[in-house]
Amino acid sequence: MRVEVSAPNRIDLAGGTTDLYPLYLLMHGGCTVNVAINVPSRVTLLATDDYVLKLCSEDLRESFESTNLDDLPTSGPLGLLGLTLRQFPPPKGLNVTTNNAAPPGSGLGASSALTVALIIGLLKIRDEELSPTKIVQMAADIETALIGVPTGKQDHIAALYGGVSLIHFGFDGYQRRGFHKSNLDLDRLQEMTILSYTGAGRFSGMNNWEITKNFIDGDHATKTKLMEIRKVAIDTCKIVEIGDWEALGPLVNKEWNIRRSLAPGVSNPTIDSMISAAKSAGAVAGKVCGAGGGGCMITITPSHKRSAVEKALADQGATIMNYEIDSFGVKTSSSEEL
């Protein structure tokens, strides 16, 4: 059997970090708003009868093979694949090939989307099913085991469902309200949102862990700022529900200004210069995707200023990324290999 799975990455508008367990429990609820985009993470699985397990990451140019499940890597570039296969071992041999369209350290949730895609592919190979909630939980736990610090769940949810996700986290897990092109003007959102790569990747786990640790340790400033970020996310949910896109820019600005003061390394002079240049060219807001520190950023701009803002970003060294909003979520196809 051959199984191909593709899962979208996401851009986050508000509420990142409040989706981390157990942080959202300590906050008495987290809230995030994100948008799935057609920058995919792809997995191809080919079942074999030779009991050999072959792993290959095309974008990282790494490979590994063994006949022993216990030999699979649990750290390093292929650690995510190894850990996932250990949780969902194939019945016989398996060739696993992966590819992330996003650059490394993009902040677009590529590793989370890849984990979701791989779990769904392995479930297909094993002729099993899991609920979306269980897939999100398993994927987040696997990533936490790999990076050694807590990871959030909003990226996995975007990969599964696609579209715009308004997500609330609490004692009962998560509740999602979704929007697609059939029930929201997503063309307008896309016209006003520029996606660019800042030129350097980042590792979100450390920023998020520092913030989480400060919260647990009772740091008043961290608690106050995270509660403010949650409030901005809740307000963003309200404007998305009615399609009030004119109100989005001020909220993105507010979220970024709070976030950049949360921990050292969330922003840096390069990011600050890019956002400043974009605003000078007419943009109304900008923020780095994910926990910050590099990777990709979004810039909110009036559509008639878009060309000038893109040029200003490029002049500062940013790479403009073409994308469309993904309304489908994870996609799977399978066939009997001849």
Give a description of the structure.
With 338 residues, this protein is an alpha+beta fold. It folds into two domains: 2-179, Ribosomal Protein S5, domain 2 (2-Layer Sandwich), CATH 3.30.230.10; 186-321, GHMP kinase, C-terminal domain (Alpha-Beta Plaits). Helix 2 packs parallel to helix 3, helix 3 (110-126) packs across helix 4 and helix 8 (220-241) packs antiparallel against helix 9 (248-259). The mean pLDDT is 94. It contains eleven helices and twelve strands. The strands form two sheets. Strands 1, 2, 3, 4, 5, 6, 7 and 12 form an eight-stranded mixed beta sheet that branches. Strands 9-10-8-11 form a four-stranded antiparallel beta sheet.
Entry summary:
Helix content is 38%, strand content 25%.
Features:
338 residues, alpha+beta, Ribosomal Protein S5, domain 2, Alpha-Beta Plaits, 8-stranded mixed β-sheet, 12 strands
Helix count from the secondary structure assignment: 11
CATH fold name of the largest domain = Ribosomal Protein S5, domain 2
If you average the pLDDT, what whole number results? 94
| Total domains | 2
**Termini separation (Å)?**
9 Å
In oligomeric terms, what are we looking at?
Answer: single chain
Going by CATH, the architecture of the largest domain would be 2-Layer Sandwich
User: How much helicity do the residues have?
Assistant: 25-40%
Strand content: 25-35%
What is the strand tally? Answer: 12
Using only C-alpha atoms, the radius of gyration works out to 20 Å
Secondary-structure content class: alpha+beta
